[in-house]
Input
Amino acid sequence: MNKQQFLNELRKALYGMPPAEIEKSVQFYSEMIDDRMEDGMNEEEAVASLGSLGEIVGQIRGGGFSTGKTASLKQNTKTVEMIVIIVTAPVWFSVYISAWMSLISFYITAVCLSISGLACIAANFFVAPTTEVMLFLIGGGCILIGLGMFIFVGTNVLVRLFIKLTKFLTEEVKKIFRGD
Output
């Protein structure tokens, strides 16, 4: 099939679409054939290299691409996303590590508060000269232990949420680099 026959068949197959879209697609494939002929193919080889008319019409009607520019734009968007991820990695990775270090410091704070509470309660046996001081140390120790437990439980919730967020973001980045 030569170029003119192919373009006429393409026009017929695209009947029912907006005329501007048909002309845009016909013009695109005409230029594609011309480019292949400039690369050394004869007219029939250039037309045959495009694939079957049915596949081309299916791609155009199915929105796979109408002029070939959509696929290129999608690839360019993925490339830009990859570049942005790589270039901004020092910033977001530092923030990510800082967030983990903050969570670890919350755990350390919770443990230290609990140990301090236990130390206050234990100090009763060695330093409490009066009942008032003894009650103050026991009360303070219980408050410190309770505060430590509260921070520990809250930190556990934050860690679980942060792990879920990490898994989600990891999957999204993988999709970008795999091209999904």
Observations:
- Residues 3-67 form one domain.
- Residues 131-178 form the longest helix (48 residues).
- The radius of gyration is 35 Å.
